[in-house]
Amino acid sequence: MAMRTLQRFLAFGILGLLALVFVIGAVRAGGWFLVPALIFGLLFLVGVYDLAQRRHAVLRNYPVIGHLRFILESFRPEIRQYLIEGDRDEVPFSREARALVYQRAKGVEDKRPFGTIENVYGSGYTWLTHSATPVKNADSDFRVVVGGPACKQPYSASLYNISAMSFGALSANAILALNRGAKLAGFAQDTGEGSISRYHRAGGGDLIFQIASGYFSCRNPDGTFSPERFAELAADPQIKMIEIKLSQGAKPGHGGMLPAAKISPEIAEARGIPMGVDCISPPAHSTFSTPIGLMHFIQQLRDLSGGKPVGFKLCIGHRREFLSMVKAMLKTGIRPDFIVIDGAEGGTGAAPIEFVNHVGMPMLEGLTFVHNALRGAGIRDEIRIGAAGKIISAFDIARALALGADWCNSGRGFMFAIGCIQAQSCHTNKCPVGIATQDSLRQRAVDVPDKSQRVARFHRNTMHALGEIAGAAGLRDPSDFMPYHFMFRQKDNEFLDGNEAYPYLPDGFLLDPDEIPELADWYDRWDRASAETFDPPEIPFGRFARRRTAAKRA
């Protein structure tokens, strides 16, 4: 035991001895003895402080050398990313995925020699079924018109757009580069809940204006929604659609606070908030609290905006709650023009680890559920669906379109296009490439003219690749992808056709008096849903028993 104790303090003792030797040498001879005396003396004082402090147990037991642990830990992500991480390790994006974006953004070779590095026989592998009669798609400007019967200003949206990322989370130069790139390539940028900044306007690109629980830029001094301010802002022709944010995939059900110290004059201007006061984003909206209330809010925004497309974004949680929204659509006759499904794999600037890892439904399951819920209510053709959640390649887009999406959004994909290296320091204000920071010196690294070209190039090249794989499947338009165009390996020796793994359920089945026995869970959940409230009619203890029969339903 004494020997182990001696080993722990050996470095500290040697430093003290060296410091003493060189201090004596400096006193007697001076000269070069002064430098090592100063160095070893300072290190010895660090060791004394380590022994006295009470915050870090490692330093109390291993004075001086214990700091090596913290030094190594500080650049562990970089060591892992550049030296240890494999091409297929997703943390959260693999090196292969990032390289694809970098190559397409720069316009350099994005082909691969020697074959796939995927484990094609492993569970989770997905592939596209190609046609014996492929076609060549010369035009890759694929679009979808968003806007239902009640919409007066429908928008022709690209099949691939920039997902919601706020000014404040991203730097001014990053926002400007993204928006200019969107303008160059003809697609849209979602503003995120931080509202429209001067940098969004300067770029001139199409905008999807997101309204969250904080109602930034369209709020009263007490934080409630201001119809007058919204109407004035929504009249801007640069705004093409309005999106109500109910939740986001990375932290569904979680509000937020921007501390007063981080609120710059530009952020205050964009959000319409005062300086010197913490900026609160509540978990829930104050304008509505019921499914019917949400529908009336959608109609109010549509009227105030002059008939622009209005929809909402959410990550699916309680499926019954979404069915309550569908019932409210039927009861009020009010339909959103679009719904954006964000998956639990979505990104964020900062969120509690429990929310990032374990709250919310993944995108593929959420997308399929919403698509089939709208089909079941007979209103799928009236509402467009967007999908978001780690969608960065043409294959990702094609798969989402096959499972029910009308278009896709990407946040981190376009961040990679302007130089993000996945340092995962977005919440520290020390982004090494100037994207996720408000530090004016750091954000100078984002050269707007160059990065905007990369954004446009990444979009064009991805759309070109989407056209190529659609052609390989024998399709003229990627919107024609269906589940059967994809195969999903469930186990190492089993795979399912997309129609089996993610089937399209019959149109209107939730309203049909003749029940389909295989869809019993859908009917039960539909019974428990209410247009008047999000609250459950009963608290379940175990599996729900069947509560009705076809006869009762008729």
Automatic annotation (TrEMBL):
Alphabetical list of Gene3D superfamilies matching this protein: Aldolase class I
Keyword Transmembrane: yes
InterPro entries per the UniProt record, alphabetical: Aldolase_TIM, GltB, Glu_synthdom, YerD
Gene Ontology biological-process annotations: glutamate biosynthetic process
UniProt keywords, alphabetically: Membrane, Transmembrane, Transmembrane helix
Transmembrane segments: 9-27, 33-52
Sequence ranges assigned to domain Glutamate synthase in this UniProt record: 160-475
GO molecular function: glutamate synthase activity
Similarity comment text for this entry: Belongs to the glutamate synthase family.
PANTHER family: ARCHAEAL-TYPE GLUTAMATE SYNTHASE [NADPH]
Protein name: FMN-binding glutamate synthase family protein
Lineage, broadest ranks: Bacteria, Pseudomonadati, Pseudomonadota, Alphaproteobacteria, Rhodobacterales
